[in-house]
Structures are given as structure tokens and as C-alpha cells.
Design brief:
Largest sheet: 9 strands, mixed
Distance between the termini: 26 Å
Shape: globular
Number of strands: 9
Radius of gyration: 17 Å
Order of helices and strands: EEEEEHEHEHHHHEHEH
Helix content: 25-40%
Length: 259
């Protein structure tokens, strides 16, 4: 479905009924990133969306974290939703932080997965190289996604796949490299280091103990900075965490803070 918003024709999908839960994906990921989580949130009205620069969403202007957060608010208004549970993964967690900091009254709960207050320098180093190469046509988006997979999943994932004779797949319909590049640079000046302490929304932070894209120390820092935040670290997990590993904790978080 499409919503005609301010400067954005946003593609979104919704499933179920109950209290609204918005799931916001990370860099280069569209609404399909959450296909494994949606069935695990029965009893809720689950809304997934394509951020600026990915999927079927069309937009005018620039890609910035705050602008993408504003898009979510405009989508909420379009759907006549005043308050919602917000879940963000990776870059989507920065969008979620922007929402909590600037529109706290519109959030029932906040859940940050594989999160950080400022994008890690080491990850930015390699991501700039590979994203720029793709934008300039010196590599393919398949190669970009292979590198991202290598940083997002732990060694054990690749070990299991190799024993099965399987190579980890990349998206069949990769996003446009110039748009992924824009999403990437949107994170450069977004820094909540001095702001997350002011978040008053009931919060849950989930991080993988073997995350090399965003080291666990980053997740702990944001978890420790938000007042009364519950922090969960999953041993052996990387940056992309299987939904079933934290769905119970998420459902409890939502249930503990009903509208």
C-alpha cells in the first residue's frame, strides 16, 4: 500500500489488529527485512515500511535520519495513529532514537536492536569504500551485500551453511547503489551521545554479543544511557539477529507497557 505524505510516497504494509507496532529497518533494507518478525507479533497491528532510498518508496529532497523519522510520524498521522510501539534495527534504531527524542509523546515503547548512538568508525571505513565503489560502478550490489553479510552474521552462521553446501544468499532485487550511499552518509552527523539520557519512553535494547559491525560496547553504552532501560545481550549473535531469539523479550516489553 502507498501513503501520500509530505515529500514522500511511502510504501508500507500492515498485518493484524491491536496496538500498533512500527518496525523500521536499517541501511539498504526494505520492509521485507521484518518478514520473520511479523508472524511472531500476533495480537498487534504490525506496520512495516520502506524508508527513503529503498523498496518502492518515492521521495523528494534529501535522505537524513530526522527526515526519515518525520516520515514515520507522517505515516502515523495518515493512519490516524497517535501513539505506537516503535522497533528499529541498526540505522532504523537511529530513526527510532530520533522519534523518541523529538516525538516522545507519540511513542508507547521504544525497542532498539543492534543499536548505536553514533555510527562506528571502523564500519564506516569499509562501508564508504564498498558503497562508493558500487555507486561508481566499480563493483556490483551483490558484492556489496556479500561484504555486509560477512559483517552482519557471526562465524557460526557461515560454518553451518558451508556444512550444508550452501552459500549465503544476497537479495534477488538489490537496492540502487546511489540510494544506499545516501542512506549511509545520512548517519555521519547523527549523534545521540548526549541525548539518549533524556529519553523517557519505556525502552528495550537488544544486541548481539558477537556483533562486529557494531561492537557490543556500543549497545551497552546506549542501554546504560537510557533511564530504566532493559538491556539484553545475546551471546554468539551478530548484527543481524534472528527474530525468534528476541521475540519473547519484545512481546513482554510491549505487554508490560500496554496503552
Amino acid at each position: 500500500m502507498f501513503a501520500e505524505l509530505q515529500d514522500v510516497k511511502m510504501y508500507y504494509e500492515e498485518e493484524g489488529s491491536g496496538e500498533p507496532v512500527f518496525l523500521i529497518a536499517g541501511i539498504g533494507a526494505n520492509h521485507r527485512f521484518w518478514k520473520g518478525m511479523v508472524p511472531l507479533l500476533k495480537g498487534y497491528r504490525v506496520i512495516t515500511l520502506d524508508n527513503r532510498g529503498v523498496g518502492q518508496t518515492e521521495y523528494k529532497g534529501d535522505i537524513q535520519i530526522d527526515a526519515m523519522a518525520d516520515d514515520v510520524i507522517h505515516l502515523m498521522d495518515y493512519l490516524h495513529i497517535y501513539k505506537a510501539h516503535i522497533v528499529g534495527w541498526s540505522m532504523g534504531s537511529q530513526i527510532a532514537q530520533s522519534l523518541a527524542i523529538r516525538y516522545g509523546e507519540r511513542l508507547q515503547t521504544l525497542t532498539l536492536v543492534s543499536s548505536y548512538q553514533f555510527r562506528p568508525h571502523r564500519s564506516a571505513y569499509f562501508m564508504y569504500m564498498i558503497a562508493t565503489a558500487a555507486k561508481e560502478g566499480r563493483c556490483t550490489m551483490d558484492e556489496v551485500n556479500m561484504v555486509l553479510n560477512a559483517f552482519c552474521f557471526p562465524e557460526t552462521t557461515f560454518e553451518v551453511l558451508e556444512k550444508k553446501g550452501i552459500i549465503m544468499p544476497v537479495p534477488k532485487h538489490p537496492e540502487k547503489p546511489e540510494e544506499v550511499y545516501k542512506q549511509m552518509i545520512s548517519m555521519d552527523k547523527f549523534d545521540t551521545t548526549e541525548k539518549t539520557k533524556d529519553i523517557k519512553v519505556p525502552s528495550l535494547v537488544v544486541h548481539g554479543g558477537m556483533d562486529i559491525m557494531v561492537e557490543p560496547i556500543k549497545g551497552r553504552a546506549i542501554g546504560n544511557s537510557i533511564p530504566d532501560c532493559r538491556y539484553i545481550e545475546l551471546p554468539g549473535e551478530g548484527h543481524t539477529i534472528a527474530p525468534e531469539l528476541y521475540a519473547d523479550a519484545l512481546r513482554k516489553h510491549l505487554a508490560d507497557h500496554k496503552m
